[in-house]
Each structure stands twice: as C-alpha cells, then as structure tokens.
Amino acid sequence: MVSALGLLTICIQFLLAASRVVNQHATIKLRAAHVHSVATRNTSSHSLSPSELQDQYGDITCMRQTGGICTLFDCDAKRGTTMCIKNGAGVGKCKCAQGLCATAAGACEAQDGEWKGVYSVKFANPSARESAYLSATPFPIGYGYKAIRSTDSEPMWKLAFLENKHVRLESVQYPGHYLSLSSTDAGLIAKLEKLEGVLAAAQVTFVVQETRRNGGGLQFWSPVHQVALSPSSLTSAGVTVCDARVDGSQGVSQAPFACTGKEFVQFTPALPNEVVSTKGTRVAVSIISPLNSWQKAVVLAVLSVCCFGSCFFPFWFYKAPESSDAAS
Questions:
Q1: Beta strands in 6-90 (DSSP E)
Q2: Chain-centroid distance, C-alpha 297
Q3: Which CATH number is 114-275 given?
Q4: Start-end of CATH 2.80.10.50 domains in the chain
Q5: pTM of the prediction?
Q6: SS in 3 state form for 144-210?
Q7: pLDDT by residue (tens digit) across 84-131?
Q8: Interatomic CA distance for residues 27 and 35, integer angstroms
Q9: CA 224 → CA 135, 166, 272, distances in Å?
Q10: Dihedral (C-alpha) 184, 190, 196, 201: value to the nearest 10 degrees?
Q11: CA-CA distance, 210 to 192, in Å (whole number)?
Q12: For the chain, what is the largest distance between any 2 Cα atoms, rounded to a whole number of angstroms?
C-alpha cells in the first residue's frame, strides 16, 4: 500500500510537471480558437470589407495579434496597451490597441514597418538543384497553402521590413497570404496564413541573418523558434527547418535537423544592407507567455486542489477496523 508520504511525493512531482505545461495548455487554447476561426473564416472574413479587416487585424507591417489570452483575466501588462477581443468560441485574445503594432515577442509598440520590394528566394545548396526557389502550393487535402521549392525563378515574395531587422513575406502567387511557421503535433510546418488566421506576430516574423558557419551565407531565420528555413532532403520539392544549435557532426538523422549549409538563401534582386543582420550571432526573441501571472496561478491552484484532494481522499474516509478479542 502506498504511504501518505509517497502520495505526497507523487503530488509534488505532478505539480512541478504541471507548472512546465501551463504554457502548453495556453497554446492548446489558442489552437482551439484558431480551429474555430478557420471553420468560420469563409463566412466571417469574407463579410468584412478591406477597411474592416485592416481595422481588426492591422496589416503585415503592423499586426495587432499578440498571442495573449484574456478569457478569464486581463491581458498581461507586459504587452503594453491592449484590447481583449473574444470570439464565438468564448476565448479572449489580446490585440494591440489602435495605432500600436505587435512585436515578435508579443508586446505592443509604435512601429513603422515598410515594404522593401518583391524578391525571389533561392536555396543556394538544395539536394535537387532544379527545384531551388521558395514557392507555395495548395495542400492536397483541406484549406491553405504549404511552402515548397519550385523551378520558377520569378519574384514571388513581397518583403516587409520592420524594426530590429525583422522581416515578413507576402506571397505574390496568393495575395493576402503570408509565410509562417506553425507548431503542429508533427513539428514546425512552413505554410501560408491569412492575417486573420495568424495566432501571433511571432508566427510570421523572420530575420535574414548572416552566418559564418558551414562556409558562410544567409539564413532565413525564425528568431522565436531558433530555426532556419531549409530544403527538405526527404522530398525533391519539400521545405522544412533546421536547427543551428544541433551539431551536425553527431549524425542527426531525424528532427531537429542540423543546419549544414543547405539552408543558405539568395535574394534576387539583392537585399538592401539594412535588411540583413550581420551581428555574427544568432538572433533570438523570447515571447511573452500566452497566460499572464494570474492565469498561471489559477491553473496551478486548480491542479493543486485536484492533486492533493485525490491523494488524501482515501484517508479522509478511512475507518480502522474495530479490534475484537481473540477468545470468545
């Protein structure tokens, strides 16, 4: 039989693990809200005029989606001046107030983004050299578009340039759709998203950074996920991500893949010098947690009550058997 001390130890271990997954719970809530928004997108977004879409979501040079949740409590004060907007699923999302823009970290600041031009993006060292250009195509099943490599060298991406050398790409093939990295059960997927489908600005924010590793070159880098867009070695036209923190000399054969130089990209026409990060170190952005401190406290408190209650419930109602004389 498990002792009370043993049960208490199990509860404490459970709470420590729960504290690490609180943010994952928040991500699940955001995904649930995202699924609802996708299900209603064909009716809701199409009924809005371009000016109304601009008012609700901003544009790629000044987005309003911070990635915060405000279902039970106000938005985290770290985000700055925000508004709590609740959707039909009952989940509140924190959006920047009018005139402010969401940074990759999820804070609302006054920013001045600008369009820099239209470019082709070529992977310099793909395994299948005939398919080297970043492009997009519809998913075989379902809604949306996935990033692929093609032979088409035409400029296919409009580049928006923001502060801190952050960039975002809009597809010329599919106007109003933006290159994003989305977290799924299968890992990070490079695909296109409409602005109203983006959960947070971090999802569509990248950096063109210069690296000296593997002979040197430019990486199209996610400062939040700490990965670079890379040609997939599994398919002739696939696009995946590589992790520069993984040591390729260890023979990594599965995700996260090491960056070995195949991820290097070339832009045509050449990018302005101001767009490229030449720091020599990997650019990193730490996002503000989707849940604020009060929301985390509530979730942990509920888990604590459930845990300790289930641990000690048998002892509350346990009644020792009455002793009886051995001799009758």
A1: 58-59, 62-63, 65-69, 82-86
A2: 23
A3: 2.80.10.50
A4: 114-275
A5: 0.76
A6: CEEEEEECCCCCCEEEEECHHHEEEEEECCCCCEEEEEEEECCEEEEEEEEHHHCCCHHHHCEEEEE
A7: 988 777 788 999 999 999 999 999 999 889 999 999 999 998 876 778
A8: 12
A9: 22, 11, 23
A10: 90
A11: 25
A12: 103
Residue count of the chain, please give it: 328
Residue 222's closest CA among 182, 173, 267?
182
CA atoms within 13 A on the CB side of 136: 24
pLDDT tens digits, one per residue of 264-290:
999 999 999 999 999 777 888 888 987
Q: For residues 256 and 77, what is the distance between their CA atoms, to the nearest angstrom? A: 34
Among 264, 228, 234, 233, residue whose Cα is nearest residue 246: 228
**Tokens standing for residue 203:** 């999802």
**Residue 26, amino acid:** A
Distances (CA, A) of 188 to 101, 140, 239: 25, 18, 11
Residue 256: helix, strand or coil by DSSP? coil
Q: Mean pLDDT, to the nearest integer, of 8-16?
A: 51
